[in-house]
User: What shape does this take?
Amino acid sequence: MAKSLMVVCGTGIATSTVATGKIKDYLASVGKTDQVKFLQSKIADEVSAIENDDYDIVVSTTMVPSAIKDKVINGVSLLTGVGVQKVFDEIEAQL
Amino acid sequence: MLSDKIILLDESATDNQDALGKLANQLLKSGAVKESYKPALLKREVEFPTGLATDKIGIAMPHTDAEHVNYDQIAFMRLHQPVQFLQMGDGEKIQVKFIFMLALKEAHSQLDMLQTLIALIQDEAKIQQLLAATTEDEVVQILKDAGIE
Assistant: This one.
């Protein structure tokens, strides 16, 4: 079954959109697109869902409360290009 | 995205809120955003910083909720002296030279434009062009040539 991958940012408008696009492109390049169901939101709406483990994988481009920090992959590299492969590796490790 | 031609070159600002306020004022003046945009944007920058440090340059991509926006627009500022922003995601202090302020009318829209913008800030040659540009029109042309419009 496809894993749910939630991408969150501060507003759910801009950077989560870009991050989602980057992850989709990468997963397509390694032939794993169908292993993931993409979701996108803003962090304020998702804290309790993330605490409850509602999603299999969570990537954030914004700061997350410390309570859920360990459950979230920092996706800022997807935007800066610095250390981007590490993010893809972390995602793949959870598939 | 650039129809209002809000391009501020070599602006001085005391800090990031000062810089953001100046750009937001221009967006309000042009009609791209509502009165509520600036306070919402300033507050959001504190809660969810938008600085990004590529290995080439420090930029910020401030934006806020779609309800404060009338129509899609990008406003650009090149700072005379960089000002400090916090980086998205990890809150690290970074020095920002370019601000791309986004007014986006809809969530999840403009993927192509946003991806183009992210590619641009990682492109040494285009950053050099933006650093060297002397007129507003030149900046608009560089951004358009990069695919942002």
Observations:
- The longest strand of chain B covers residues 73-86.
- The mean pLDDT of chain B is 94.
- The helical segments of chain B are 16-30, 37-47, 111-120, 124-132, 136-146.
